[in-house]
């Protein structure tokens, strides 16, 4: 659970927003985007498949696809949708989807529709230039400048995106909030994020949390559901995924920057966690 202060510090940036009427040409497989998407379906139906979970897109529902989620898109006949593409960051590199649980689908309200319409009204010119998401994702992360409105419109846009984003939050019970809001786990997350390029010893993390090594490992797994080394490797792979999509660094250089002891070990762990080799993952991200 995020503390109120961290909630306040979530930074969002609008990339695209518009309304589009789609047909069977909206059919793309294995799209991997470094930004999040929210859809509001107004007519017709289609399908998305994030992380191999088939979800039917239905009229009057909202859908969230988090950043770096491998997803397939399909429209069988005709479908109308509002869409938002945006980024979201937390201080010290903490990842929002690590700290909060989100739903993928929620029923839309009349207010949601009004918010989408207002966002489009105050941000003209932010429609996608290309329908193919594989083109768009590559362009945005190769230095393409995005439209920036006046200060008042930007502030209003941020408020609208946060309001729509909040619709996908999953409630947590009191014990979850008490456990995940403890300062020690936040400090450990920050330490791991800042030191991914080097060896991270469990003793270091235990000292940071003021626990013995064994007690720390038990508390860490109780809080995150993962052993410390599993969590560290997960963060290393997420960083590698980002570098594969947004840079042209060699595989060896990426393995070094993400703290793996060898290129072979990096490749093995990457394939185990993502289901694909790093080179294949890069091809899907739009960089050769």
Labels describing this entry:
single chain, 288 residues, alpha+beta, seven-stranded antiparallel sheet, 7 strands
SS elements, strand count:
7
Indicate the mean pLDDT: 84
Total of DSSP H or I helical runs spanning 4+ residues: 13
Major sheet description:
7 strands, antiparallel
Please tell me how large the radius of gyration is: 20 Å
* Residues in helices, as a percent range: 40-55%
Percent range for β-strand residues: 15-25%
Low-confidence stretches: 173-181
Alpha-beta classification: alpha+beta
- The topology string of helices and strands comes to HEEEEEEHEHHHHHHHHHHH
Terminal residue distance = 38 Å
Shape from CA axes? Answer: globular
Description of the structure:
Helix content is 45%, strand content 22%. The chain is built from 13 helices and seven strands. Strands 1, 2, 3, 4, 5, 6 and 7 form a seven-stranded antiparallel sheet that branches. The two termini are 38 Å apart. Residues 173-181 have low confidence and may be disordered.
SSE topology:
Blueprint: H1 4-8, E1 11-22, E2 27-31, E3 36-50, E4 55-57, E5 61-65, E6 71-89, H2 96-99, E7 105-107, H3 110-122, H4 133-140, H5 151-166, H6 174-180, H7 183-194, H8 202-209, H9 213-224, H10 228-246, H11 251-257, H12 263-274, H13 278-284
Antiparallel strand pairs: 1-6, 2-6, 3-4, 3-5, 3-6, 5-7
In short:
The chain has 288 residues and is an alpha+beta fold. The chain is 45% helix and 22% strand. The chain has helices spanning 4-8, 96-99, 110-122, 133-140, 151-166, 174-180, 183-194, 202-209, 213-224, 228-246, 251-257, 263-274, 278-284; strands at residues 11-22, 27-31, 36-50, 55-57, 61-65, 71-89, 105-107.
């Amino acid at each position: 659970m995020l503390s109120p202060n961290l909630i306040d510090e979530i930074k969002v940036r609008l990339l695209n927003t518009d309304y589009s009427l789609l047909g069977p040409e909206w059919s793309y497989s294995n799209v991997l985007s470094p930004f999040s998407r929210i859809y509001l379906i107004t007519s017709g139906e289609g399908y998305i498949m994030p992380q191999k979970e088939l979800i039917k897109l239905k009229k009057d529902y909202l859908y969230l696809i988090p950043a770096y989620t491998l997803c397939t898109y399909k429209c069988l006949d005709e479908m109308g949708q509002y869409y938002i593409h945006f980024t979201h960051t937390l201080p010290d590199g903490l990842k929002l989807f690590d700290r909060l649980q989100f739903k993928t689908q929620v029923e839309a309200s009349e207010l949601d529709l009004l918010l989408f319409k207002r966002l489009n009204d105050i941000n003209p010119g932010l429609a996608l230039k290309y329908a193919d998401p594989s083109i768009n994702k590559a362009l945005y992360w190769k230095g393409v400048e995005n439209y920036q409105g006046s200060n008042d419109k930007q502030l209003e846009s941020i408020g609208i995106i946060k309001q729509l984003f909040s619709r996908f939050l999953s409630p947590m019970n009191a014990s979850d909030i008490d456990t995940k809001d403890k300062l020690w786990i936040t400090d450990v997350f920050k330490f791991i994020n800042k030191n991914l390029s080097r060896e991270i010893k469990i003793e270091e993390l235990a000292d940071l949390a003021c626990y013995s090594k064994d007690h720390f490992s038990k508390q860490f797994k109780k809080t995150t559901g993962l052993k410390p080394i599993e969590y560290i490797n997960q963060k290393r792979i997420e960083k590698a995924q980002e570098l594969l999509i947004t840079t042209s660094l060699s595989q060896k250089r990426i393995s070094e920057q993400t703290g793996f002891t060898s290129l072979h070990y990096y490749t093995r762990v990457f394939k185990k966690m993502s289901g694909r080799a790093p080179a294949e993952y890069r091809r899907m991200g739009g960089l050769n």
